[in-house]
Design brief:
The complex is a heterodimer of chains A (294) and B (505). Chain A is mostly helical and 294 residues long. Chain A is built from 13 helices and four strands. The two termini of chain A are 27 Å apart. The two termini of chain B are 38 Å apart. Chain B has three domains: 231 residues, 3-Layer(aba) Sandwich (Rossmann fold); 183 residues, 3-Layer(aba) Sandwich (Rossmann fold), CATH 3.40.50.300; 64 residues, no CATH class. Classes of the chains: A mainly alpha (294), B alpha/beta (505).
Chain lengths: 294, 505
């Protein structure tokens, strides 16, 4: 419906090239939101995803600059992201810190390390082979969209079908009951945060390839976009329920809105107001629908 | 209340329910879990709206569409979970939402304190109105709730299992307050599962079954057996069903277990027996259970499963050793309420249901369907959320979870607390069936008749240690109580004659 309204307002919106453009722009937020969905379903929150994205991007760029082969550099970047998330998870699980605090700390630490490694400056200019990750098109579809799509398929399978996914729902629904039922909270919980960190790093790979540049200041406020997408998609901040499909739809709604408002030449100040109203409105509708069902 | 109907998705909670209550009486509302008592009371107190039916007050149709309007009609409810603000004083809590003011926005403290004192005195309670509610005992908090209801000049007061957390003396205090209320013409609707209380305080009783009105009788004209039959719709002849007891090989041996509030606890559990664990609240019974299943750390001693020392460092390890724990607080510790029946059941043994970490959902579904029919869990299907099940059915889901995990050692902590008579009976029959098939059960219970009726052997705990071990033949309520209190012979028999074995918190 949103798309139809935007189409009526600006015919350019429904052109194939613009729609693909929206998808490509959305791929970063959608990827981060996928990891966020795991954490929020388990009853937590991860504020560090934006900073982890920056750090993973810088590590990737430095590795490429020193001549590390592309696959190895990507693997290193993903490992750094997962490690940051893993540390979050360990702090939450064994240090018994509230996720808000642990990831708030990591948000600052990862950002600082990224700035230190990059000496405060962007790192630009990579080989064609790496940039193909952003520029290549398969059947007209841009590579970032494909990568995000594949990540979503994989993550959906993990969440819906595996022990790990079940554990995420059970821990978010009632951690003590899950533990007493034999769910291995001490293993699964750190892993959930590691997934979020890994997804941030995957987003960093896409972003770095698209911009042909990694910036230590990348990803600021991305955590809020990711939380917004997750919540618009119907995942409860209380934990225990939510889906990846919802997060994907949430990210798309935000992307479509931004794009449409841009095409309509709405000032970016007003855009912020609109996005905020949509977040609140979507959750209000969701809450009242759920209350009705009970 | 006439012809009240209420339907939830998949469940018909109320089906032409009716209730007639007179001023100045204690009207007991009885029924199995899921019979519709709570829903009916929620309709009356405005918490939910009925789909059909009418409510008459003094012969006039009224519509308590929300709690505020119900309150305006003089209808107040006190639920099991108290709704007090712990950091405010007794007086402030009593007048919460209708604080007397001197000028607009300025509290009239002197009047509020005096009024609070007067209300509490009229209930026969001596309580400092300036005390913080969080610092007074649970029974007194309940009195504050009653006083708060009376501050509204309540005409109908609904009490949902008000005594579940009270000691014997506190129950007496509460009953005195109730008697004062009814002598002032207030109607009290009283929901309880404890038959002794029903007969002590009730004037008339209405029985609901499957959301419908079954019978209304004067308490003086009915017997326990008749009430149970009315509730269940069948005869529940034997309160504690008998079974043949054949003691098999040793399943579990606990050797000098200690630390974390436990002092060198030793005992053994065999196949085919129910080992009752009695003791006062705080004697360490739940701690012992949690230590065995690895939920709490152990400092000394060891645990042997079938003769082999086992390292049970987490509940997951205990589950692998085929030990299942059914906690006292099902909603907080036993179930993930937001998840479905099948997901709760599969949670204990996901490893066995999976290949390479991928859960086989067909086997999961089949297991859940088998459990639902085998344990007679009343549900719309394996996909229903356990949130919407009654207490007895929730307990069955917890049990199903451990049976599906093939647990052989089952630790029940207060297996029938908050569960009605008929569902209790079903739980007992299930326990018997399990031990007959070679399981061993540890049953922690504060309900002395239950311990005596169900156990083959009884451990009595006191202050973190086993005070006595009694066989079923030698156990009597007096002996168990003596051991629980740590007194010998004549001393302990005085004044205590069994019944509920509950200490004040």
């Amino acid at each position: 419906m949103l798309c139809l309204i935007l189409w009526a307002a600006t015919p350019h919106f429904l052109t194939v090239s613009n729609l693909l453009n929206v998808l490509e722009q959305t791929s970063i937020n959608a990827t981060v939101a996928a990891g966020m969905t795991f954490v929020i379903i388990s009853g937590g929150i991860d504020l560090s995803v934006g900073s982890v994205l920056a750090l993973a991007g810088i590590v990737l760029a430095l590795a490429l600059e020193t001549g590390v082969p592309v696959p190895a550099a990507i693997a290193l970047s993903l490992a750094i992201g997962a490690a940051c998330g893993g540390v979050n998870g360990l702090l939450v699980t064994f240090g018994r810190l509230p996720p808000f605090i642990a990831t708030l700390g990591m948000m600052s630490v990862a950002r600082g390390v990224a700035l230190m490694l990059a000496e405060g400056r962007p790192i630009s200019g990579f080989g064609e082979g790496f940039r193909a990750l952003a520029t290549e098109r398969i059947l007209m579809v841009p590579a970032p969209v494909l990568i995000t799509g594949l990540l979503y398929l994989g993550a959906h399978f993990v969440l819906a079908r595996t022990i790990f996914g079940r554990a995420a729902y059970a821990i978010g629904g009632n951690e003590e009951a899950a533990r007493l039922s034999g769910v291995q909270v001490r293993i699964h919980k750190p892993a959930i945060y590691a997934v979020a960190g890994g997804m941030s790093a995957a987003a960093a790979v896409i972003l770095t390839a698209r911009l042909n540049s990694a910036q230590p200041t990348a990803g600021i406020m991305y955590e809020l976009d990711a939380i917004a997408a997750t919540v618009i998609g119907g995942t409860s901040l209380m934990g225990g329920e939510g889906t990846l499909l919802g997060a994907l739809i949430g990210a798309l709604i935000m992307g479509v809105l931004r794009n449409g408002l841009n095409l309509l030449n709405v000032s970016s100040f007003i855009q912020q107001v609109v996005i905020g109203v949509v977040i609140i409105g979507a959750v209000l509708v969701d809450v009242s629908l759920k209350r009705h069902k009970r | 209340m006439r012809g009240i109907c209420k339907e939830y998705p998949g469940v018909r909670a109320l089906d032409q329910a009716a209730l007639e209550v007179r001023g100045g009486e204690v009207h007991v509302l009885l029924g199995e879990n899921g019979a519709g008592k709570s829903t009916l009371m929620k309709v009356l107190s405005g918490a939910v709206r009925a789909d059909a039916g009418e409510i008459l007050l003094d012969g006039n149709a009224v519509d308590p569409a929300d709690p505020i309007r119900a309150r305006g009609l003089g209808i107040r409810a006190i639920y099991q979970e108290l709704s007090l603000v712990p950091h405010l004083s007794v007086a402030e809590n009593i007048f919460l939402g209708k604080t007397p003011t001197r000028w607009p926005g300025v509290v009239h403290w002197a009047r509020m304190r005096a009024d609070a004192q007067r209300l509490l005195a009229s209930l026969g309670v001596a309580l400092d109105v300036d005390a913080r509610v969080g610092s007074v005992r649970l029974a007194q908090q309940q009195m504050v709730e009653v006083a708060r209801a009376m501050a509204d000049v309540a005409r109908i007061l609904i009490m949902d299992e008000p005594t579940s957390a009270l000691s014997e003396r506190e129950v007496g205090q509460l009953f005195n307050a109730i008697r004062r209320l009814i002598s002032d013409g207030v109607a009290v609707i009283y929901i309880s599962h404890r038959m002794d209380e029903v007969f002590r305080i009730g004037d008339r009783v209405t029985v609901l079954r499957d959301g419908a009105h079954v019978a209304t009788r004067a308490i003086a004209d009915v017997s326990v057996a008749e009430l149970v039959r009315l509730m269940a719709g069948r005869d529940v002849s034997d309160h504690y069903p008998k079974r043949t007891h054949t003691r098999g090989e040793e399943l579990l041996r606990v050797d000098n277990l200690g630390g974390n509030g436990l002092r060198t606890v030793s005992f053994a559990l065999h196949r085919g027996e129910v080992l009752g664990v009695a003791g006062l609240v705080g004697a360490g019974r739940t701690r012992l259970a949690r230590a065995i299943v690895g939920a709490e750390p152990v400092e000394q001693g060891r645990i042997l499963v079938k003769g082999t020392p086992a390292r049970l460092s987490s509940p997951a390890a205990a589950a692998r050793a085929r030990i299942g724990f059914l906690p006292e607080d099902r909603k907080q510790h036993g179930l993930v309420l937001g998840l479905s029946v099948e997901r709760n059941i599969s949670m204990s043994h996901l490893g066995r249901l999976s290949r390479l970490g991928v859960v086989d959902r067909r086997i999961e579904r089949r297991e859940a369907e088998a459990a639902v029919s085998d344990l007679r869990i009343r549900t719309t299907g394996p996909q229903q959320r356990v949130l919407n099940l009654s207490g007895g059915n929730q307990q069955k889901v917890v049990l199903a979870k451990w049976l599906a995990a093939r647990a052989e050692i089952l630790i029940f902590d207060e297996p029938t607390r908050g569960i009605d008579v008929a569902a209790r009976h079903e739980i007992y029959l299930l326990m018997n069936r399990l031990v007959e098939h070679g399981a061993g059960i540890i049953m922690i219970s504060s309900d002395l008749p239950e311990v005596l009726g169900m156990s083959d052997r009884i451990l009595v705990m006191r202050a973190g240690a086993v005070q006595a071990e009694l066989s079923a033949a030698e156990a009597t309520d007096t002996r168990v109580l003596q051991a629980a209190l740590g007194v010998d012979g004549e001393q302990g028999a005085r004044g205590q004659s069994g019944g509920q074995l509950t200490a004040s918190p």
